[in-house]
Amino acid sequence: MPTFRVAGKMFATLPEDETSIAVRCPKEERDELVLAEPEKFWIADHEAGFAWVRVRLSVLEDEPELRDILADSWRQAAPSRLLDTYPELGIPAAE
């Protein structure tokens, strides 16, 4: 299973069936996502105790949505020095 890391911390995995991607997500937000869009987000049984959520790739609206999901996960794993170095991947500006 391919894994994606920043500064040694995993922020995404691509399961062997390649139909979903697992990303970091705070448990509170994860539960809200699953309730709001169960066709898109779900929690694998073995990840229930961790801050991870699965995303069904076939249900994503477009490539920018996938980019946003991966960037959110990256931000959670990245150390502050990298967030400072790559502000375009840092906390999104308030609209």
Furnish the topology, listing elements before pairings.
Layout (H helix, E strand, L loop, with lengths): L2 E4 L2 E5 L6 E5 L2 H10 L4 E2 L9 E5 L6 H15 L2 H6 L10
Antiparallel strand pairs: 1-2, 2-3, 3-5, 4-5
Structure at a glance:
With 95 residues, the chain is an alpha+beta fold.
Task: Explain the overall architecture.
The structure is a single chain. By secondary structure, this protein is α+β, with helices and mostly antiparallel strands. The protein has a single domain (3-89), classed as Aspartate Aminotransferase, domain 1. Helices cover 33% and strands 22% of the residues. The protein has three helices and five strands, in the order βββαββαα. The chain has helices at 27-36, 63-77, 80-85, and strands spanning 3-6, 9-13, 20-24, 41-42, 52-56. A five-stranded antiparallel beta sheet has the order 1-2-3-5-4, covered by helices on one side. A hairpin with a 2-residue loop joins strand 1 (3-6) and strand 2. The longest helix is centred in the C-terminal third of the chain and has 15 residues, at 63-77.
